[in-house]
Design goal:
This is Mannitol repressor MtlR. The protein contains 8 helices and no strands. By secondary structure, the chain is an all-alpha fold.
């Protein structure tokens, strides 16, 4: 792992861990994904100042055809810069982000409404099994502690998997020799 990759990974981890809620984590993930995709899209286009100012700029801002992240994602996927699984994960994160923006409910990482969509991510290898209470006479404090512990385990799993995914996307280069040979 290069020093730049380590710095990027640290930055992504800090951003994802900054928020306490599911909504915060997903919003941070979308912000970081947007940055990474923007860099890839800019790599696709010509680099001279005239092209960037008069041709590329209007495509990417305001009502330009590439102003929306979902359209830029389709472009980098269609050009072979990101894989199908990376594209599908990005679309899933976008859909979850939109749902969380329109839904006023505050969800926990272990809620079915969150575990379901997150469980479909390719970048996430899976969640650990939820704790099972063997002793029916266990105190409420113990049950609460186990639920909180599981909540933290799921959150950590999501943060680490999302970090790896975002670092991988951010480290891509458009039109490298590897991409041209595919």
């Amino acid at each position: 792992m290069t020093e730049n990759t380590q710095l990027l990974e640290t930055r992504v981890l800090e951003c994802l861990n900054a928020g306490a809620t599911v909504r915060d984590l997903v919003a941070a993930a979308i912000e970081l994904l947007t940055e990474a995709i923007n860099i890839l899209v800019l790599q696709v286009f010509r680099k001279d100042d005239y092209a960037v100012k008069y041709a590329v700029g209007p495509l990417l801002v305001g009502a330009g055809p590439l102003a929306e992240l979902s359209v830029r994602l389709k472009l980098v996927y269609a050009l072979g810069v990101i894989s199908r699984q990376e594209y599908e994960d990005a679309e899933l994160l976008l859909a979850l982000h939109e749902e969380l923006q329109t839904n006023p409910n505050e969800y926990h990482f272990t809620d079915d409404e969150i575990l379901g969509p997150l469980g479909e991510l390719h970048c996430l290898s899976g969640f650990p099994a939820p704790p099972t209470m063997l002793d029916p006479a266990a105190s409420e404090d113990l049950v609460l502690m186990q639920k909180q512990r599981y909540q933290q385990i799921v959150r950590s799993t999501v943060v680490l998997s999302t970090t790896e995914y975002l670092v991988r996307i951010s480290a891509k280069k458009a039109f490298t020799d590897d991409l041209l040979l595919k």
